[in-house]
């Protein structure tokens, strides 16, 4: 049996919808058959919303993806459980089952309406990535050249998310937006699928000040497996993932760094990976690299378990 895993981000539900595939078994990066090989697996499934590439409204698109994920969970209820509360989380862990946490990647799904937060909460959403790469009603994304921070609506939305127990995710957010979130929040927040800018100077990666802030706030950083975020070399291997983990650990991030694979949301993986079946290989590589048993346990599971547990305890 492979080790227990908590992965803070994948885009599998989007690909299931687009390619008309099934969660139980498919040829994507992730399916239930391969996840069942682990001693429990908790996956955050993102409903990806990019306003520049979808037909119809952002809200309708998002609801359709969430509805698809609900149908997949119901259809495979013996294998996977929807996690909506801290109690759900602990029960899934105790039973060593697969657990699904629903999230939204792209706050344009709210369409500037705070009431939409209540609706998404009732649909099971427990994390929202405030922006994708572009600007929306909440803030500017990282590719927006003006680099604006949170809007007035964005501040209201972030405050409401903290009250409701919806985890705030700053991956893809502008640098100004990151610091606005840091200034106005009191609870831990996360960068669910981001890497280290000092090791790979991609705009999507976090600088040292951002990393240190997340460490000091006991937030989370899920290391993304996309080669363009990991290295500037033409080749990329699992060891490059470990370099980013090690960098954060060396800054005191034992309780911060975790997994944020971005499965089915990236065009490529490291050369020695093909999907979720290789998560055990990543864990073994951490041990071979010299990480302590406790560090490995935190990275592969405990850090995001703590953050989600604490967030869900604030749920309405």
From TrEMBL:
Q: What Pfam family does this protein match (any one)?
A: Peptidase_M19
| Gene Ontology biological process terms in this record | proteolysis
PROSITE patterns linked to this entry: RENAL_DIPEPTIDASE_1 (PS00869), RENAL_DIPEPTIDASE_2 (PS51365)
State one molecular function term (GO): metallodipeptidase activity
CDD domains per record: rDP_like
Please give the SUPFAM superfamilies that the UniProt record associates with this protein: Metallo-dependent hydrolases
**Known InterPro entries for this protein?**
Dipep_AS, Metal_Hydrolase, Pept_M19
The protein's matches in PANTHER family, at most eight in alphabetical order, are given as: DIPEPTIDASE, MICROSOMAL DIPEPTIDASE
Name of the molecule in the record: Dipeptidase
Q: Which organism is it from?
A: Ructibacterium gallinarum
């Amino acid at each position: 049996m492979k080790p227990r895993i908590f992965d803070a981000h994948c885009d599998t539900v989007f690909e299931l919808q687009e390619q008309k595939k099934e969660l139980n078994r498919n040829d994507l990066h992730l399916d239930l058959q391969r996840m069942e090989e682990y001693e429990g697996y908790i996956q955050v499934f993102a409903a990806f919303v990019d306003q520049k590439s979808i037909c119809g409204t952002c809200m309708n698109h998002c609801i359709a993806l969430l509805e698809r994920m609900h149908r997949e969970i119901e259809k495979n209820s013996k294998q996977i459980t929807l996690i909506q509360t801290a109690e759900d989380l602990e029960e899934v862990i105790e039973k060593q089952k697969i657990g699904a946490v629903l999230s939204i990647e792209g706050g344009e799904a709210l369409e500037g309406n705070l009431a939409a937060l209540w609706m998404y909460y009732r649909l099971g959403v427990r994390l929202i990535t405030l922006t994708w790469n572009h600007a929306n009603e909440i803030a500017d994304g990282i590719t927006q050249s003006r680099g604006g921070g949170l809007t007035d609506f964005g501040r209201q939305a972030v405050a409401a998310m903290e009250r409701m127990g919806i985890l705030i995710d700053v991956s893809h957010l502008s640098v100004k937006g990151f610091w606005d979130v840091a200034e106005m929040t009191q609870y831990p927040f996360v960068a669910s699928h981001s890497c280290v800018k000092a090791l790979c100077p991609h705009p999507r990666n976090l600088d040292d000040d951002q990393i240190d802030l997340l460490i000091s706030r006991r937030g989370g950083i899920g290391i993304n497996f996309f080669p363009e975020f990991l290295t500037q070399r033409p080749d990329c291997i699992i060891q490059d993932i470990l370099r980013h983990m090690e960098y954060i650990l060396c800054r005191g991030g034992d309780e911060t760094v975790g997994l944020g694979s971005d499965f089915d949301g990236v065009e490529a993986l490291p050369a020695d990976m093909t999907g979720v079946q290789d998560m055990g290989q990543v864990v073994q590589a951490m041990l071979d690299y010299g990480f302590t048993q406790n560090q490995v346990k935190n990275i592969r599971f405990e850090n995001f378990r703590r953050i989600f547990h604490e967030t869900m305890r604030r749920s309405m």
